[in-house]
Design brief:
The protein is of the alpha+beta class. It contains 8 helices and 19 strands. The strands form 4 sheets. Strands 6-7-8-3-9-10 form a 6-stranded mixed beta sheet, sandwiched between helices. Helix 2 runs parallel beside helix 4. The longest helix has 18 residues. It is globular.
C-alpha cells in the first residue's frame, strides 16, 4: 500500500480578480509531498510558489481543485485548525515579548499547561541552539537568531508540516549559507515535513530532497536536485537552474544511447536525448560551462574574455562570429587561470554532457 502524502495538491487552480483583470496564479497544479521530506518550491517571482504555500496554510482558498493533508481535504478548515505552521520571510516575532514568550505563544493559545509549555520552550531553545536566550527580546538578537526563534515557535506545536516562505532571504550571504545546513539538520532531527519556498537555486539544490521548479503557475519539472540540474526537461529549467550554454544544432543521427549533433559546422556533440529526433532535425542543446573541457593549442575556438571568480576562471570562447561558449575551469594551485585572451584552444565535451531539450 502506497504511503499517504503529507501534503497533496490535486488539480489546483487559483485565480485572483475577475473578468479582464483576472490573474491565474496557479493552473491545474498537482503534486504530492512525501512524509518526512524536505520539499522545495522553486521559481522566479510570480510563478505561483507562494500562492501554493498559502493555499496549504489556509490563508487562501483554491478556485478549483483540492488541498489534502495526510489524505484528507482541508479547504473547509481555517489555518489554525490545520496541522501546519508557517515561518515567514519577516519572522513575524512579537517585539514586546521575550524569546521564551514568543515560542510559548502557540502552546498557550491551545491551552497547554504552564509546566508542559515551559518544558517545550526549553526543548525548542536547545533544538535551535539558543539555550540561555529565553529572556531576551527580538530586538536584542541578530537576524539569524531571530530566524531560529521563528523556527522554534513554529515547531513548538509539533506540526505535521512546516511551511517556510523564503525565510533566508533577509540574511546576508555568509549567514544564509550557514543557515542552509542548520535548516536541513533541523528537518532531519525532527522528522517533520518541510515545504520550502525560494527563488534561490543554490538554496534549493543544497537542502532539498526533491524540487518542484515552477513557472507561470505550473510545475515545469519535479525531481531530486541532481536530476533537475543534470537532466533539465526544457529550456526554462536549464536556464533557471545554474549557468547554461544554449546551442542550436542539427542532428546527424543516433549513436548508441546518444544523439550525434553538429554545431556551427565545426563542433560535434554526443548529446543525451530528451526526445526523439530524426536526422536533419534542428534541436537546442544545453551544456553546463563546467562540463566543457579546453585543450591548449587547438583550433576549435579562441579565448575572447576571462573572468577570475576565485576557485575558477570563466572563459568566453569564440567559436564563430556569432557563437560564443561560456566555459568554467578550475584554477591552478597558485590560483592562476590557464588561458589568456587570444589563446587558441581545443574544445571537448564528454558524451552525454550536452542535453537535447524538448523545447
Amino acid at each position: 500500500m502506497a504511503e499517504i502524502a503529507a501534503v497533496e495538491a490535486v488539480g489546483v487552480t487559483k485565480v485572483f480578480g475577475a473578468g479582464a483583470e483576472a490573474v491565474r496564479a496557479l493552473d491545474e497544479v498537482s503534486v504530492a509531498v512525501r512524509q518526512n521530506e524536505f520539499f522545495t518550491l522553486l521559481g522566479p517571482s510570480g510563478c505561483g510558489k507562494t500562492t501554493l504555500l498559502r493555499l496549504i496554510a489556509g490563508f487562501e482558498q483554491p478556485t478549483a481543485g483540492e488541498i489534502l493533508l495526510k489524505g484528507k481535504p482541508v479547504e473547509h478548515l481555517p489555518p489554525y485548525q490545520r496541522a501546519v505552521n508557517t515561518v515567514f520571510q519577516s519572522y513575524a516575532l512579537f517585539p514586546h515579548m521575550t524569546v521564551a514568550e514568543n515560542i510559548a505563544f502557540g502552546l498557550e493559545m491551545r491551552g497547554t499547561s504552564k509546566e508542559k509549555t515551559s518544558g517545550v520552550v526549553e526543548e525548542m531553545l536547545s533544538l535551535v541552539k539558543l539555550t540561555g536566550f529565553g529572556g531576551r527580546r527580538p530586538a536584542q538578537l541578530s537576524g539569524g537568531q531571530q530566524q531560529r526563534v521563528a523556527l522554534a515557535r513554529a515547531l513548538a506545536n509539533s506540526p505535521d508540516v512546516l511551511l517556510l516562505d523564503e525565510p533566508l532571504s533577509a540574511l546576508d550571504l555568509k549567514l544564509r549559507q550557514e543557515m542552509r545546513g542548520e535548516l536541513k539538520n533541523l528537518q532531519r532531527r525532527t522528522g517533520i515535513t518541510f515545504v520550502f519556498v525560494t527563488h534561490d537555486q543554490e538554496e534549493a539544490l543544497t537542502m532539498s530532497d526533491r524540487i518542484a521548479v515552477m513557472s507561470r503557475g505550473r510545475i515545469q519539472q519535479l525531481g531530486a536536485p541532481l536530476e533537475i540540474y543534470e537532466r533539465p526537461v526544457n529550456r526554462f529549467v536549464a536556464d533557471f537552474i545554474g549557468d547554461t550554454n544554449f546551442l542550436e544544432a542539427s542532428v546527424d543521427g543516433r549513436k548508441g544511447e546518444y544523439i550525434h549533433c553538429r554545431v556551427a559546422d565545426s563542433l560535434d556533440f554526443l548529446a543525451s536525448p530528451a526526445a526523439n529526433a530524426a536526422a536533419g532535425a534542428k534541436v537546442t542543446l544545453a551544456i553546463r560551462p563546467e562540463k566543457i573541457q579546453l585543450r591548449p593549442g587547438g583550433t576549435a575556438g579562441t579565448i575572447a574574455q576571462t573572468v577570475y571568480v576565485g576557485t575558477d576562471t570563466n572563459y568566453e570562447v569564440r567559436i564563430a562570429d556569432s557563437l560564443r561558449l561560456n566555459v568554467r575551469v578550475q584554477n591552478a594551485v597558485d590560483g592562476r587561470g590557464q588561458y589568456a585572451v587570444g589563446d587558441k584552444v581545443g574544445i571537448e565535451v564528454p558524451a552525454g554532457a550536452a542535453r537535447m531539450l524538448q523545447d
